[in-house]
Amino acid sequence: MRIELVYAPNCNSYRKALHVLETVIAEERLPIAIEMIEDNGSTKPVVRINGAELAEPSQSFEGDPCFLPSSGSHLVGSGVLCAEHLRNYISEKWREHSIPA
Fold it and tell me: What's the whole-number average pLDDT of the chain?
């Protein structure tokens, strides 16, 4: 399984994305490294898992642990997905990755 964090070196918001990714991976005890990819044209950090870019979930609701009532968003500043959504997505992809075909 491959996790990439695409970032612009002059944008500090990637540090929050990296911290959230590292926390989720550590809490789930997964042996996954995060590959850092520098992109000077990037306007916000982008997380890719197995080449697929993660996006904000399409629906928001108040019972969601990542719902921010003021913005109706699942994002944690500057395009960083919240830990709960990353955890769910990474866990799902890890299960798919580790189940033999």
Answer: 75
